[in-house]
Structures are given as structure tokens and as C-alpha cells.
Amino acid sequence: MISAVRINETGGPEVMELQDVAIGPPGPGMVTVANKAIGLNYIDTYHRSGLYPLPLPTGLGLEGAGEVQAVGEGVDLVEGDRVAYCSAGFGAYAEAINLPAMRLVKIPQGVGFEQAAAVLLKGQTAEYLLQRTYPIKAGEPCLFHAAAGGVGLLFGQWARNIGATVIGTVGSEEKAVLARAHGYTHVINYRTEDVLTRVLEITGGEKLPVVYDGVGRDTFEVSLDCLRPRGLMVSFGNASGAPAPLDLQILANKGSLFITRPTMLTYTASEAELQQSSEDVFSRVVSGELMVEINQRYALQDVQQAHRDLESRKTSGSTILVP
């Protein structure tokens, strides 16, 4: 028996329960991973609340890092291998989990379990956003909302190293200091400053070729307003709730804008894409190009409080659960 978080219905943090569950041996192509650290991500709250529906009852969590404990038939991995995952299935909030071997990535030397669990999903998100959804170039300006969050801090460092001019939004001066230390050239406190006015000042009235928006409802309209004609709106999350339905004529009226709604799962769908994306992330962690800020740690039994803090925007950087 292992301890695992389960939900029988969708709702607030209180629907999550830590239960003793049985875990069988891994089948063909599967491995058992004993989790050493578990990543907490905003998408977990969407699954818990029902915004992104899952069949019930279900486990929660997409990201973790640990040791291979057992292997099924036809698997190249061996017991004791250090592995991480973030797109292998649901149920990471657990002491151990059975997962398909082809969706696991090996953790390189120089990266610890906590680092791996804190960086893989967020790092792969930053990777596909700035390298493949809209490839940022040196000298280009861009806007990223929630700059002090887990993805935001990685995005800022990565984009700075490319040579982009990175503008970020935050909700406090404390978070502004953190964002500046992680690559943001300009930081806008949306509680005290008007985002569009500041973007116009920074760009000399030209606006932006791309906006990366993981906040959703609260920022959707201003994100569109910050784009220059034929600019791209990358809407990749709904931290404040889902935006209202969009009248496509608005895109024409604002300058023939483009909009995309990408997901990390689509951008790492093939094993080759998964391995390349994780390699891009881990190599930058090993080289020191990406600093992983683990600013919150919670015991697995405190998962309800972890979700409350995440949803109330009390967290910054990455958060992990410790089984």
C-alpha cells in the first residue's frame, strides 16, 4: 500500500484526500517510480476544480521525479535509474506510481530530484513557448504575464539569454524584484500601473509582436490591446479563470491579430519531442543558464494548503510536494 491523493468529485482544495491505495507490479512497457519529489502546477487546480474534466475518481498531479523501483517487460530502464516525468499520466501526488517508460526522461548528473520535479513541466512549457510557438529573436520585445511564477522565472532567464527584451507583469513589488533578477528588462506592477500605458511607453508606441498569457480572464483583453498589427496572442493558461468566448471580428478590428491556445502535451506528443525538450531544459539547468527557484515545499498531507496558496497567488517560483 502507498499513500496517494485522490478525488471523488471536483471542487475546492477540500475534495483532495490522502488515501492508502494498492499499486500492482508494472505491466509490459511500464515502470514503477518511487517519487522523491512532486511538482505542483497550476494545471493541477484545473483538474481538481473540473475546469479540465477527468474521469472520476482519479489521482492528481502530472509531474514528479524519483527512482525506478520495478520494471515491466520490454523496458530499457533498470531499477535505481533516476527519472522525471510531466506528461506520462495522472496521479503524481503519490509515494509511487506506475507509468509508461516511453514518457519518462532520465535525470542527468548535476540535477537533483527536487530540481527535476520543480523544473521539468515549467521548463518544457517555457521551451515550447519561446522556441516553437513563437520563436523569440534577439532584440525583440515580448510580454509575459505572471512573471514571478514558476514558468515566468524560467521564461525570463531563457529569453534574456536569447537577447530578447522581456516585459513582465507582477502583483507586488516583492515579485517585481524577483522578476528583474530573472531576466526581465521591464516589470509592470498591474496593481499600481496601467499595463497598456506602460507597454506603449516601453515600445515607443509600437506595441508588441507577441504576448504570452497564462493568466486568462483578467488579462485577456489587455493582452490583445498590447499587440501590434498581425501580432500573436499566446493564451496558454487560465490562472484567473477562462476568458469569455471571443468574437473573431475583434481580431480583425485590432489589426488582423493571430491567437493560439497551445498545450505542452501537444508540443511533447512524440517521444522525440519529449526527449529533445527535456534535454534543452536540463542542459540549461546543469550549465547554470537556468536557476530553479523552489520557494515553497509542502508535505504530501498538506496538499490542500498548497493548492490554496497557489490559487491565492501567495506563491512565487516553483513549489514541490514531498512524499
Keywords:
single chain, 323 residues, alpha/beta, Quinone Oxidoreductase, Chain A, domain 1, Rossmann fold, 6-stranded parallel sheet, 10 helices, GroES-like_sf, oxidoreductase, NADP
Task: Tell me about this structure.
The structure is a single chain. With 323 residues, this protein is of the alpha/beta class. The protein has 2 domains: 2-119 and 271-322, Medium-chain alcohol dehydrogenases, catalytic domain (Quinone Oxidoreductase, Chain A, domain 1); 137-261, Rossmann fold (3-Layer(aba) Sandwich). Helix content is 31%, strand content 27%. The chain contains 10 helices and 16 strands. The strands form 3 sheets. Strands 3, 5, 6, 7, 8, 15 and 16 form a 7-stranded mixed sheet that branches. The two termini are 14 Å apart. This is Quinone oxidoreductase. Residues 11-321 form the Enoyl reductase (ER) domain. It holds the Pfam family ADH_N. InterPro entries: ADH-like_C, ADH-like_N, ER, GroES-like_sf, NAD(P)-bd_dom_sf, QOR-like, Quin_OxRdtase/zeta-crystal_CS.
Summarize the SSE layout with pairings.
Blueprint lengths: L1 E6 L9 E5 L8 E11 L1 H8 L8 E2 L3 E9 L10 E4 L10 E5 L4 E2 L6 H21 L7 E4 L5 H13 L2 E6 L2 H8 L5 E4 L5 H9 L4 E6 L6 H6 L1 E9 L13 H5 L4 E3 L3 H4 L3 H17 L6 E6 L3 H9 L6 E5 L1
Parallel strand pairs: 9-10, 9-12, 10-11, 12-13, 13-14, 15-16
Antiparallel strand pairs: 1-2, 1-4, 3-5, 3-7, 3-16, 5-6, 6-8
Helix pairs in contact: 2-3, 2-9
Organism: Candidatus Marimicrobium litorale
Keywords: NADP, Oxidoreductase
Protein name: Quinone oxidoreductase
